[in-house]
Each structure stands twice: as C-alpha cells, then as structure tokens.
Amino acid sequence: MKTTGIETTIGAVGEVRPDRALWSAVCKASGPVAEADHQRWLRGLGGSFRSPAPVPAPPVQASPPAERRFYPWWCQERAAASRGPERRLWLDRALDAFAEIADAPTDVGNDEGPLWAVARWFDRDQVHRGFALLESMAPFDWPYRLGGSRAALIGRLAELGELDAAWEQLEGFSPNDSFSDHWCAVALGRWLAAATHRGLTLASGLHRVGFSQLSPAQRYVLLDEVWHSPAFRPRPGDARSWLDLARGLEDSTERSLSVRYLAASAWPALPAVEWIDAVTAEREAAAGLLELVDVGGAEVLAALEALLRFEPRGELFPELLEHPDAELSVVEACGRRWLRGGPSRFDLDPAALRCWLERAGVGPHDEV
C-alpha cells in the first residue's frame, strides 16, 4: 500500500523507525501540564483550558465607538471587513470622518497613522482626497507627522498608474519628522515596484529613486517594500539584478532577510538551485530555507535536510513538524536539540505534532 510523509521515509530505508521514547518526551514537554487539559489540547478538543497561541482577530465592533475621535478608525475597520461597493462606502466615510478631526490630532496606539491600513483599496478619487486630507492635517501635531499616511497614498497612486503624480507627492514629507527617511524609503520602494511593473527599466528606476545615494537602512526598507508589493513581478532578465541588489546590502541580517523575501516573492523567475544557493550563502541559512519550503517544495526541503543533518537546530523543530515529508532522522535530531533547550510548553502546534505522534505510536491516551 502506498504511504506518505514519515511512513514513506520509513518504507524507503527499511530499518528506520520513529523513536517512540523521543516522541513521548516531546509530547510530555508540550501543552498544558494537567493531564486532562493536555489530552484535550493534543486532540484539539475544547474545554476550560485556553492555549496562549495566537487567536484570530476579534470581530469588528458592531456599533460606533463612544468617542468621536476614534470613529474614523472604526470606519477603516468596517472597510477592511467589507467588499465591493460596501467597502468603498466605508472608505468614503473614513475620509469624511478624518476630515472632521483634522485639527484634533489623536493616536489610537500601535498605528502607522490615518489611511495607512486602507489606502491599498482606494480608487483614484479617494487617493486624491487622501492627499487633500493630509494637507489639512499638516499644520497640526499628528503622530509620525503623517509620513506613513503619505507613503501609503504614494504607493497606491503609483499602483493605479499615476507614476508622475505619485512622484510629485514625495516632496511632501515633513523635514521635522524624525521618521521621514524611513517613510520616504517606503514610498520609493512602492513607487519602484509599480514603475518597473509598468515598463520602466530596472536601471532607470534605480537611477530615478537615487538608490546609490540612499543610506544602508533606507536601501533595506526600499527593497523590502518592493518584494512585498502586489505590483512586483520581475521580468525574466531582471531577476538576477534584483538578487544582486539584495546581496549588496551591508548588514548581514538585513541581507539574509532580503534575499529570502525576494526568493519567496519571485521564485518562478529563477531556477530553484539559484535561490537555494543564494539563501544558503547568507546568515541563518536553515531558517531561510525552511521559510521557502512551501514555495520551493521538495528541492528546498532536501537542501534544508542536508544542512540539518550536519547541524540539527532545535529552534527550527516547531516549524519543521509542519512538513510531514521531512526526513524522520532529521526531524528527530532537531527534536532532541529542542528538548535539551528547555522549550516553552506551547512551542508546538498540536495538529502538526499529533501527526508525528500517531506515526510513532504515541496516542492521545498514552501516558506521557
């Protein structure tokens, strides 16, 4: 009978079998301490116990907030939860509501500023309304001096094809804003992604944004925005040039992150071996490859396993469990390192763990 995942690995090598004692120890080190709660957690059942794992975002508040100054953000939340004409209606209401408090700066906390979260859905009229709104807000002490809002609007206007109009808005960043260099780099990255998507050559685009004159921090931010832009679709002849830009960053951590983010967003543009070699040459190569298994498949997984056979990484064990086709011996080696590191009880996803426990013969009713 054909098998998959760990069983395929076991069948291929014959003598390899899961280390039941190891998996029992892993199971015991995970989830709640109380036995009844542990079994519920492992089986994915409900109960009084609540895991500290991330939970879905709460539903949008049904009624408007009591304080009028928070109403614009509530409208933005409603827009994010809507679609089609209803979304456009809520976006217009958000713009109207911000206009009403333009002279009353406020900060809802952990927010990049008005319009940042919803500008990506604006049509042309709404983008231009947004810029007019920023002008009316500019004399007042809004958090971040509205740099994030301007960057989001510039990026959206560029995506809509108004490249020249978007470029003109780059002059509007406040020199009094200590974050202006960051937000300008965000805007330049989004503009460059849209411009190259619409036919501007990469060389011309880099010259236009003054890439060589930017600070190292700005270069990283700019490229990060390019990689994550929905407009980024590198032409076949440009993929290696983009990769050279990522590999040219000075900071080793930023360089490693930039290479792997580029690989994830532009994977079809180059042969898999080129992406694998590029990621492997940078810091945290194993972690970088693990992030790319979903886009690169078996070839990336094989390269990752080759690294982990040489140096098992306990901190990668939780994510490695989510790939049932990973080589058993590699997963178990990482599991041993994970156990020795004194792991948190909730490092592991119970659904991913349960798959491996079942194949190792450790069931939810076993004593662990």
Main sheet specs: none
Helical residues, percent: 55-70%
Number of beta strands: 0
Distance between the termini: 31 Å
Overall SS class: mainly alpha
Strand content: under 5%
What is the count of helical runs? 19
Alpha-carbon Rg, integer: 25 Å
- What is the residue-averaged pLDDT? 89
Order of helices and strands: HHHHHHHHHHHHHHHHHHH
Low-confidence stretches: 1-13, 46-52
Q: Could you say which overall geometry the principal axes of the C-alpha atoms support? A: globular
Description:
Residues 1-13 and 46-52 have low confidence and may be disordered. This protein starts with a helix and ends in an 8-residue tail after the last helix. It has 368 residues and is mainly α. 58% of the residues lie in helices and 0% in strands. The chain has a domain at 62-215.
Name some characteristics of this structure.
single chain, mainly alpha
Task: Provide the fold topology.
Blueprint: H1 5-13, H2 20-28, H3 35-43, H4 71-80, H5 84-100, H6 124-137, H7 147-159, H8 163-168, H9 180-197, H10 202-209, H11 216-228, H12 239-247, H13 252-266, H14 272-280, H15 285-296, H16 298-310, H17 317-320, H18 328-340, H19 350-360
Helix pairs in contact: 2-18, 2-19, 4-5, 5-6, 6-7, 7-9, 9-10, 9-11, 11-13, 12-13, 13-15, 14-15, 15-16
